[in-house]
Design a protein that fits this description.
Layout lengths: L24 H19 L9 E6 L4 E2 L3 E2 L4 E7 L4 E2 L3 E2 L1
Parallel strand pairs: 1-4, 2-5, 3-6
Length: 92
């Protein structure tokens, strides 16, 4: 499960659903924290996004050697993979 719970959730920020109101400070705060954590994962070559709730993910111009996991993930806006090489399995 999740390492560190987010606010009053039982889940970490990446597994926490996005707020439904798209014009709130809370949404901006959640998106900023999700973006930060995704960058940390990518920087450490961790491409396991299973079950995560994201608005946008951009893995363009990357080489991913160990595979990519998006099973049960929810991406509400865009996923970008332009010019990306994935050597391992891709799980969707």
């Amino acid at each position: 499960m999740c390492e560190v719970a987010w606010d009053d959730s039982d889940y970490c920020i990446l597994h926490t659903e996005l707020p439904h109101d798209t014009e709130t400070h809370e949404l901006r705060r959640v998106l900023a924290e999700k973006d930060k954590r995704v960058k940390e994962k990518v920087d450490s070559n961790d491409f396991n996004f299973e079950g995560m709730h994201l608005a946008v993910i951009d893995l363009s111009r990357m080489t991913i050697a160990a595979g990519l996991n998006f099973r049960r993930a929810v991406i509400s806006e865009k996923a970008r993979f332009s010019n990306t090489e994935i050597a391992g399995n891709v799980l969707l």
